[in-house]
């Protein structure tokens, strides 16, 4: 049991307030339980202030709001409920990140992949680690469903508290630019913060590349001395121009990684054999050979980011080498689909021009025959990336099939027209139905050819309007091979 004054810094409160004992924190009126504290959040669809009375009817002891709401319970007025909620959650759960070391990863692409590499390395030394990201949250081997890449603060701090209770020593997490901008991670004590890369995404939300970058910068500007008095570390991709900004906004020591020798940590002699990559790793403390089961230059960066983060976390070189070697493939990231077909079929999560460029190039390099790219762009997301993704796919493939990828509330045909504007030639087809688009590519591809199906990766659904329908690129591709064999 805690009092409101125990969890809300007084400086954030605007007017006098009546203290209350509270047992739980809520941002959804429908989930409020007796003696809960309800935070009114203005969302994109509705305004939480309109649900304050429902929250009180459900037993809320008090309400935290940005403006007056007419309810039979004390109302505490604050400037920004979402940010106050983040601090309150950290206090409510008694600062879990004091005990759980948090490694935060931000950047446009590579967060999920890098976090899994870090997890694999940490598991060499720790029996139970935590992970929070796009696909799920994990406490040891227990997987917990999440909605967002970086959950809202209440869910996030609850996850950290669960980790602390289960004696998790370290947690690696993806920190999205949305989360940084909305303050979901305020109060989180990051020990190591990692930057992967910056390229275009989410301009619908951030407005410009500069404010997108600045949002990511919040991870580095909020780094400082940890509760334990230890220094935090900023791990930066020294080959990416945005790192100069992150270095400028942080006060903590910086460790850089990349392919150029100017970096503290860099790779040399990169080699690919079968499904494995190896390189010579150079660090200020010595050199060693590493090997891991991922392909592509972009994954060299992800491996280096994971290595640098683990060096910052004092993990031994032996564990780093072994952890990378034993790293499992990440679901839906350059995942090969095997259904006995003659062609190579790869499912990937590239959903930005930068991500797609890397992955199409990697597919091109490993393809002797023709490369077929099946791509789409999400609805209710950055519109500017649509023609750019089409252009990038056209540049490196022999044929592009444009199709739907979570059109959400938008007209799928209009999304496809916006993508089509990016083509300069005519080696493409437009097949709105994703299943048919995949079937078409599988039908066209023969021995030596590759079909790259990008955009949905691990997703097992297609969001059309407000319906979430089952859809898994891997299953559909397998079924397409089966149908194709039957017809032949
Ligand atoms: C734009 C955005 O970030 N939206 C998030 C937001 O939802 P919303 O704004 O639609 O909320 P809303 O439905 O309008 O409701 C407003 C408030 O009223 C409350 N409410 C609502 C109804 C009711 O009856 N009672 C009630 O109290 C809601 O609980 C909420 O507190 O709050 C939800 C709960 O935390 C989030 O799940 C949701 O993320 C949605 C799913 C989303 O798509 N977010 C994306 C843009 C996002 O955050 N992406 C990033 C980056 C991904 C990447 O890596 O590229 C991420 O971290 O996931
Ligand atoms: N370091 C990288 N540089 C460029 N592209 C990358 C890199 N790593 C992965 N990609 C591409 O981006 C896709 C998504 O990778 P991943 O899921 O690791 O990124 P993410 O940052 O977690 O994405 P999200 O923003 O959706 O959480 C991959 O499928 C691949 O195509
Ligand atoms: N985290 C990204 C994932 C995009 C995946 C793609 N399949 C889409 O729906 O646009 C986003 O929410 O923008
Ligand atoms: Mg991710």
TrEMBL record:
Pfam families: Mur_ligase, Mur_ligase_C, Mur_ligase_M. It comes from Marinococcus halophilus. Its EC number is 6.3.2.13. Its cofactor is Mg(2+). GO terms for biological process: cell division; cell wall organization; peptidoglycan biosynthetic process; regulation of cell shape. It comes from the Bacteria. Residues 22-78 form the Mur ligase N-terminal catalytic domain. Residues 105-310 form the Mur ligase central domain. It is found in: Cytoplasm. This is UDP-N-acetylmuramoyl-L-alanyl-D-glutamate--2,6-diaminopimelate ligase. Meso-2,6-diaminopimelate binds at residues 381, 405-408, 455, 459. Carboxylation is probably crucial for Mg(2+) binding and, consequently, for the gamma-phosphate positioning of ATP. A motif (Meso-diaminopimelate recognition motif) lies at residues 405-408. Residues 332-457 form the Mur ligase C-terminal domain. It catalyses: UDP-N-acetyl-alpha-D-muramoyl-L-alanyl-D-glutamate + meso-2,6-diaminopimelate + ATP = UDP-N-acetyl-alpha-D-muramoyl-L-alanyl-gamma-D-glutamyl-meso-2,6-diaminopimelate + ADP + phosphate + H(+). ATP binds at residues 107-113. Pathway: Cell wall biogenesis; peptidoglycan biosynthesis. SUPFAM superfamilies: MurD-like peptide ligases, catalytic domain, MurD-like peptide ligases, peptide-binding domain, MurE/MurF N-terminal domain. The lineage of its organism: Bacteria, Bacillati, Bacillota, Bacilli, Bacillales.
